[in-house]
Write a structure and sequence with these properties.
The protein is mainly α. It has helices at 2-21, 25-50, 52-71, 75-105, 109-116, 141-188, 200-246, 251-291, 299-312, 328-349, and strands spanning 319-320, 324-325. A two-stranded antiparallel sheet has the order 1-2. Strand 1 (319-320) and strand 2 (324-325) form a beta hairpin. Helix 4 packs antiparallel against helix 8. The radius of gyration is 25 Å and the shape is elongated. It starts with a helix and ends with a helix.
Amino acid sequence: MVFTIISLLTPSLLKTYSSMREHDLDTVMECVPVIVSTLVALIKILNHNINRKKFENMFDRMAKQWEVSEINGELHVLNEIIEQGSRMGSLYRISLWGFLVLFVSLPLSSPFLDIVAPLNETRAELPLFQLNYIVDTDDHFYIVHLHSAWCSLVVVLIITTIDSLYMVIIHYCCGLFAICGYQVKKATKVGRAIDIKDNRFKSCVITHYEAISFYEDMDESTRTSYLFQVGLNMIGITVTAVQAVMYVDQPRESLRIVMFLLGQQFHLYALSVPGQVMLDRSLELINDIYVSKWHEIPLKFEKTLHIMQIRCSKPCKLSAGGLYEMNIENFGTIFKTCMSYFTILLSLRE
């Protein structure tokens, strides 16, 4: 997969270099989204392999917790939240694959129309990307298109697979917070009659600690990757928006670029949503403790819940290099920033 990505990245960089030497800003801007997308996929797969041991450890912990939750009759709480992550991942995959199919098939419309509704002249064949293969791409249109389409498929496959996996992992962590809240409500139902040697509050503390530990491991494994991905996405969205304006008088080409733009925006949105879910779920534990019958239990256990509440006041936030928090509010801010850069680039082009 890395070799496939590099096989697309190399001609893109060659085309960018030659266009910069010719001071062709429009072609440079056409190359940038391709470079950005390939680099994002490359970062994802390399980051996952660099942190392979950490992710394997997380998978083992997930499997063990699943068994413990099943034994304790708490599996329905964990399963409900993980199902939400699974559905989110499915929607994400379907959407990006839909954008990819439309994006890849549009350049083939000219050869198709030449067969179905031929004209006195051959329709212009538009390449999928602006690439420099050193050879004449017009004479090898179908080979070049096949290579570009295959590379696009691999890039989208990497992006959707890893992002969907992370969605499930993050929702699992959110499930731990939900289990902790469920355990607190269940433990406090006994009230003053609770045995001082009862281990139910011990289980609450252990689950809370496991949730925080799991969150920290996930954040540590992804924060550097997210930083590069968010930065590259901003560049890609900005430049692709300029491209869409450049080709506004060419509906077919404009539609293809819009598909690419929507895919980039949806990717950035999909990176932000799990972070928002994590933030909300970690704060929700405070409410679970508050609405429980904490005032009816022995003072020793009240102090335990109070310490948990103090820790809950510090929400669990996924970040991009510690500089950017992955949530919906910041997604809106970044989108506005991209539009600001878009207007600057458009004015420079004019």
